[in-house]
Amino acid sequence: MKLSEKIIEGLLWLAATITILVTIGIIWVLLSGSIPFFQKVSIIEFITGTEWTPLFAKKEFGILPLVAGTFLTTAIAIAVALPLGLTIAIYLNEYAPARLKSTIKPVLEVLATIPTVVYGFFALTVVTPFLQGFIPNLAGFNALSAGIVMGIMIIPMISSLSEDAISAVPKSLREAAYGMGSTRLQTAFKVMVPAASSGIIVSVILAISRAVGETMLVAIAAGQQPRFTLNPLVPIETITTYIVQVSLGDVPHGSLEYRTIFAAGLVLFVFTFALNNLSFWIKKKYQEKYD
Amino acid sequence: MTNSTRNRIKDKAFQVFGIFCMLIGLVFLAALLINILSEGLARIDWDFLTSLPSRRASRSGILTAWAGTLWILVLTSLIAFPLGISAGVYLEEYTKKTKMASFLEINIANLAGVPSIIYGLLGLEIFVRQMGMGSSLLAGAMTLSLLVLPIVIVTTRESLKAVPQTVRQGSFALGATKWQTTWLQVLPAAFGGILTGVIMSLSRAVGEAAPLVVVGALAYVPFVPSSPNDEFTVLPIQIFNWTSRPQAEFLVNAAAAIIMLLLITFLLNGIAVYLRNKQQKKIKW
């Protein structure tokens, strides 16, 4: 092989290995920021404490309020996105005429391309006032409105991934169901959805991971008050919002307060990493093979 | 009522419910767009596009914000595309099915799932602090480049996969080397698909605010950046800042800036979709 060929291959290899450096970099940055933090604050206190006030005079370092805020907005988002997204996926696959399907899909995809600050603006200025018409004691910043809007934002994620999974089920299964006299609904829920279940579960897990890491929407609409509660009507704070809040303020570099964002980031990373790998594992293990 | 009519009614009911669910999504999208247009459209004029930010809402403009966004787009393209496309080419054309290759693949899939704000922490520590770039355009663009890298790699690989083996075999048969085959045959054939993915990744980068906030992009930048080492703001951060203010006039400004941001996003996505459709029609292997 000529030398120039070798050099080119080497450069391409270098580009590919940069992705490994990125992963190492992320883990290194999170750990090197967190380890000094955990030398001052005990891990037990960090993961069991129910007060998070690093920016106040009386400092408490319990991450649970941020975790609760993240869990709350994520749960509301999935409660909206899962039924809507899955129904749309089934409808498009089993019921919709081909022309409707080919026009609706790209329109729904638009929901996924809109920047999340825009959703935050809409949640804060339109959805919250609208909901306050029904729920008078809903605060101006709250998990409910942010969660609902986030749910609609991630509909395309669940609907298109689930639809891909349902489409991948071989035609013969559907035809067999019809041949037995099933209606479209029975075919969908008794044959297609069970056959595509691993793909659907993967889509939901990825949607959860996306919701957990979502930042600007919740930073704008859900508030910046860490609170250990599952009440969707009051202002809360998510892990991501906290990192934004500290980044916007002027916390001195190297201080304990500054290090909290790396500890919070580490928790966030662990959650999303676990969810993503769970989805890969399910995909690999339970993918039904039809020949 | 017999069992079969009951089943038919259920079937119809689900059909109606399916249409209803789609309508929720569509109505929400329409409400969002109409609301933002009606709030912000009247605010957009030449002054708004060419003014610096100001403490007074009525005097504020988005000049620095869209100039920053443009800078970020160009720099991110310059960094992420060569890197991502090279990595994609290596993984698709050069590696054999080794353990290393599958490890790289899993690693890239994992990176694609890392929340954008974590990339912000990475950029803050590595680019801003360790490499001493400060909260500059370059640091922001490098952070976003790492963020979109998995998208570029994955779409590059998919486009390369779509090029049939016969193209490669034909080229090898004529005595071309591996790189000549890749550079002169495979990459041109996959160009449309790669371009689509690349534009999609730009549309993702243009809407990102969280990592740039962490890297230290400012909400108030009183000058237009003139080099990659300057401090900067971008449209999404300007929108975030205006949305966080209590005064209603700033919300109008935010809506107007959102219209500009959506214009850029939709334009990029429109080009990508157009290219993809053209590609699908043109090429029949």
UniProtKB/TrEMBL annotation, chain A:
Span of domain ABC transmembrane type-1: 67-279
Record's subcellular location: Cell membrane
* One Gene Ontology cellular component annotation held by this UniProt entry: plasma membrane
Q: Under which name does UniProt file this protein?
A: Phosphate transport system permease protein
Q: Which GO terms describe its biological process?
A: phosphate ion transport
Q: Which organism is it from?
A: Rufibacter glacialis
Per its UniProt record, what Pfam families does this chain match? BPD_transp_1 (PF00528)
- Membrane spanning stretches: 12-31, 63-86, 107-131, 143-166, 187-208, 261-282
Looking up InterPro entries in the UniProt record yields: MetI-like, MetI-like_sf, Phosphate_PstC
Role, per record: Part of the binding-protein-dependent transport system for phosphate; probably responsible for the translocation of the substrate across the membrane.
Q: Which domain of life is it from?
A: Bacteria
Instruction: State the UniProt keywords alphabetically.
Output: Cell membrane, Membrane, Phosphate transport, Transmembrane, Transmembrane helix, Transport
- PANTHER family, per database record: PHOSPHATE TRANSPORT SYSTEM PERMEASE, PHOSPHATE TRANSPORT SYSTEM PERMEASE PROTEIN
Q: Which family does this protein fall into?
A: Belongs to the binding-protein-dependent transport system permease family. CysTW subfamily.
Instruction: Indicate how the chain sits in the lipid bilayer.
Output: Multi-pass membrane protein
What is a GO molecular function of this protein? phosphate transmembrane transporter activity
Major localization listed first in the record, in broad terms = membrane
Keyword flag ATP-binding: no
CDD domains, alphabetically? TM_PBP2
Automatic annotation (TrEMBL), chain B:
Q: Which residues cross the membrane?
A: 16-42, 63-91, 103-124, 136-154, 182-202, 209-225, 250-275
Task: Name the principal localization, coarsely classed.
Answer: membrane
Q: List GO molecular-function terms, semicolon-separated.
A: phosphate transmembrane transporter activity
The name this protein carries in UniProt is Phosphate transport system permease protein PstA
**Any single Gene Ontology cellular-component annotation:** plasma membrane
Q: Cellular location of this protein?
A: Cell membrane
Domain ABC transmembrane type-1, first and last residues per copy: 66-272
Gene3D superfamilies in alphabetical order: MetI-like
Keywords assigned: Cell membrane, Membrane, Transmembrane, Transmembrane helix, Transport
Q: Name one Pfam family in it.
A: BPD_transp_1
Q: Membrane topology for this entry?
A: Multi-pass membrane protein
Q: Which family does it belong to?
A: Belongs to the binding-protein-dependent transport system permease family. CysTW subfamily.
The biological process GO terms on file are: phosphate ion transmembrane transport
